[in-house]
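Thread: "does anyone have the structure for this chain?"

Original post by V.I.:
We have the sequence but no experimental structure in hand. Need at least a predicted one for the grant figures.
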Amino acid sequence: MKAVATNRAYAVRIPARSCDRLRVLRLLLALCAVTAFFATATPARAAEATPVTQAAYLADRLRENPVHVTDQLPREIPRSTAPDFARLAKKTGVPTYVLVLPTQSGTDGRQLLGAVHDRLNRDGLYVLVDDSAVAEATAYGVRVPADAASTVAMYELPYDAGPLRSFERFVDVVAQGGEKATARAEAARETYRDDEPAEMYVGPSDRRNQSFVTGILLTGVPLLILLVAGYAGRRRRRSGAGRRVPRWVVPGAAVATAAALALTAPVVFDQTRSSAAEPPTPADLSARVDRVAAGLKKDTVYADPESPRVLDSRQLDRLHDRIRDFRRSDGGGPVYVALVPQTPASESAGDSWLFAAAVHAESRRDGLYVVADPDDGTIDVYNYGLRIASDSLSFDLPDAVTLGDSRADEADDHLLGERLDTLMTFLDKAPRTDRPGFESTPAAAPKADEEYALPPLFATDFWPGLFVGAFAALLLSGVVAGVMWIGGRLRRPDPAPEPTDVLPFTAPTEPSASYLRRTAYTELTTLISEFTDPDDRTRAWDHLDAAMLLADGDPDRARAAGTTPATLVAVIVLARAGRAALADDADDADDLRHDLCCGVNPLHGPAVSRHHVRVTTEGVARRLLPVCEPCRDTAIAEPGGIPGRLLRLPDPSLGNSRVPYYDATDGPLTAVPHGIARLIDKVRETAGVH
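Reply from O.Q.:
Generated one for you, tokens below.
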């Protein structure tokens, strides 16, 4: 019985211990299972995609080298200029860390420098340089007059001095010490409070003017000497008074004057470049494309580490999931998203199409390439090898996706996460084709080494200047005849439209109502008089029809009071485009150059290209607009000058205040940046005509 009892007791104890072991074992297995589940459920890219902050990335660059020059501004600040910045930084006498970055809207430079310092954890002078000048400077743990030096660099130098020269002036003032630097800052602020320093460089238009003036003087002055001296000599001979001058004196004086002008002009107009930018090397121009292409090989979404983050982790994961699903869908394929700023100083000169083509060529991977600009919020899509209808990508993508709306403009991240998600939905539904589509080859960007090189003085408008100078000398030699001729020209009874080539220089930016009424009536009646065959349904007829719709069928309404300025501008644009179309048709040419007019000021006439231009003096907000040649030159040489060239019209809601024309109305005029054809459609839609 004892044995049996003992065995029973043993049998009871064994299961109790086994249960404890089983519980522990089950708990361990459960933990292992949870760990394995999350290890397999979370893609490997989740760890890689955890965004490294902008400050952390820049701190790593400064840890490698105390001077970091971005690869995004090779046309303004090539990376090869880094040794020049480093050489200047040594003159401060304290550890100096320099960040040369693109101008970033919505980013506080002082906060960025503070965040970089916190991550680098090294005391010294931290300087932020943008694409034009020293933008911010802060000292940590050292005593230097950073604020005074920034003030001197800002006031003493013109806007076109360039970032390297601005940093050089900044360093020189820092080296002077606190007392001298403060005094110099006060003097600079007082001296240039109202008047800015004179510009250091001239643009292509200025050089053409210099050439033109040189040509006029080179023929006008010597010829005027010959004509006036000859006239005076005849008067003397007729009157018999005075002593006869040797015949060789007057021609000799004319030749000597011409030689003196030819030798002096290159000394006076000695500029050779329109910018302080140094010509970039081939490595400078390819660095960013190589970086982005390498990044897209690792991850289908590449966010520029030098820019503020516009996609959080959740948005980034969702975008990856949408891209993966699209790739697996019927007719889908790879999608590569590059969140990279597109600035005029980049290797592609701000052309996202050219940038996408370069990245595709470097990566050698077909797919849809999406270029999303974290700076201005624009989104562009390019097809390289997928069976997606190209027309759908070009014409059916909503503006709210490609350009954004008012909510996107107000948001720091431009709502890029939301808009990219909408883009993926659009791609899922986009029509498929039987064959893969490929983008055509974009136009090449301006050659970097020639972009800022001014043409020779004795070129371009120098030759027309020679003829104008001769003509001017003839006019001045006969004052009476000249005055009569000019008076006759000014007393023309019937006003005629201004020539197209002078419109960018004569068109006002804030036109009066009388100017708009007079110009609209002149342009419209001129088009009607030149339109000899009303039954010929050419492009010119469409322009005339739309202009007459705006004038309610009566040209006299164009000069009647009550017609809005926006309507008058639209009539002027349509009438001028109609006359240009008539000229093209008369030449039997299918010329579409006049289908775009300048989006900066529609009164400038035809556009020559599209360009991202700065449209406000506050921040760096840009719009992709068609531009005429002078506006394109200004956008390249002086981006900050574009807001002053914008056409501004009265806003009825703001009294007498004027705003850019595309904000002053919601009528047909808002379609001007999209082309004359879009303007005509908008007019007909407004009038209810189909």
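V.I.: this helps a lot. The CA atoms of residues 1 and 7 lie 10 Å apart.
O.Q.: and The radius of gyration is 34 Å.
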